[in-house]
Amino acid sequence: MTKFHFFSGRTAQAAAIAVSVAMGLSTAATGQSHGDMEAVLAGDLMLSGGFSRATLPNAPVGGGFLTIANQGGDDRLVSASADVSERVEIHEMAMEGDVMKMRELPDGLPIPAGETVELKPGSYHLMFMGLKDALVEGETVEVTLEFEQAGEVIVPLLVGAPNAKGAGHGHMDHGKMNHGDMQKDSN
Predict the structure, then answer these.
(1) Burial of 185 by CB count in 10 Å (0-12 exposed, 13-18 middle, 19+ buried)?
(2) From CA 6, how far away is CA 39, in angstroms rounded?
């Protein structure tokens, strides 16, 4: 049974900074910001910055995005599933000549040892095929990811605006957030 831990707020930011320092990354590369969803640990993997984009009613597909930082040995994202769609595929977008093409990665996505892999618009991503309902801005989609080494983990993806480029990038109304849970740094 795989163990995983949820972090939020300052704890997630501190964990992301620790991973960044250990891996020689800048904090900007981890995707951690005030509005991000919780970071999730699965084995040697830290999954953070999860988001999706709002879709129109009756849209057949949607996308999912996140950052996977690998602190251990080689791993591979082999499959994904979500209750919001009939199936979830792992895709990449790549230039073939002068044409950008999208294709499924039937063997999954390698997560090399000591590296960070970003699933982002225009690159690697999760594709929700056969959406059951529209993805609504402000809601959260839970996705189950299966890794060869780290096992199964559930990751929350915050649904942003239809043109969202990342989690927590000004698309949420911070006036509605409860900042009472945030702790002041005593140093």
Answers:
(1) exposed
(2) 6
Rounded CA separation 14/83 (Å)? 31
pLDDT tens-digit readout, 118-164: 999 999 999 999 999 999 999 999 999 999 999 999 999 999 999 98
Beta bridge partners of 90: 126
User: Distance (Å, rounded) from C-alpha 19 to C-alpha 154?
Assistant: 20
Amino acid at 172: M
Give the C-alpha separation, 108 to 66, whole Å: 15
* Residue 28, CA atoms < 13 Å, CB-side half-sphere: 0
State both tokens at 38: 């919780």
- What is the residue type of 94? A
In degrees rounded to 5, what are phi and psi of residue 13?
A: -65, -45
Query: What letter represents residue 31's amino acid?
Result: G
As a whole number of angstroms, the distance between CA 12 and CA 14 comes to 5
Q: What does the CA dihedral 74, 93, 50, 106 come to, rounded to 10 degrees? A: -50
For residue 124, the 8-state DSSP code is B
Q: By the 8 A CB rule, do 68 and 47 touch?
A: yes
Neighbouring CB atoms inside 10 A of 179's CB total 8
DSSP SS3 for 174: helix
pLDDT digits (tens, 9 = 90+) for 56-95: 999 999 999 999 999 999 999 999 999 999 999 999 998 8
